[in-house]
Amino acid sequence: MSSFKNAMKSQKTHRERHQPESRQNLGLLEKKKDYKLRAKDYNDKQKVLKRLRKKALNKNPDEFYHHMINSRTVDGEHKEKTKEASLSEEQIQLMQTQDLNYVIS
After folding, report:
1. What does the pLDDT look like over 26-69, one tens digit per residue?
2. What are the DSSP E strand ranges found in the chain?
3. Which long-range contacts (C-beta less than 8 Å, at least 24 apart) are formed by 28-31?
């Protein structure tokens, strides 16, 4: 048991230094845990960008979908083209009479 206590005495906890007074104008001193988070985030973003670049390179330029006709991109966002359904009064009356005829017969 005493050997365990002696081992515990010799193990000091290493603390990180604070920002010196002369460098206070540079802001907070980045600690290792902060650097690791920032580096991990950066590397994750780089991996995503690399995967997207590879996906774009593998894209077939002759590929066509019918949905491409009915949509477009505005400022990088997909927007649906809306069809204006403007029916005249005569068309509406004709449709209503056809509906009545269908129901009655």
Report:
1. 888 889 999 999 999 999 999 999 999 999 899 887 887 877 78
2. 71-74, 77-80
3. none
Separation CA 82–CA 24 (nearest Å): 58
Query: Are 71 and 81 in contact, with CB atoms under 8 Å apart?
Result: yes
Both tokens of 91, joined, read 């068309």
Which residues share a beta bridge with 33? none
Q: What is the C-alpha to C-alpha distance for residues 69 and 28, in angstroms, rounded to an integer?
A: 53
- What gap in Å lies between CA 24 and CA 66, rounded to an integer? 60
Please indicate whether residue 47 or residue 93 has the higher confidence score (pLDDT): 47
| 3-state SS string for 55-78 | HHHCCCCCCCCHHHCCEEEECCEE
Q: Is 75 left (phi over 0), alpha (psi -120 to 50) or beta?
A: left
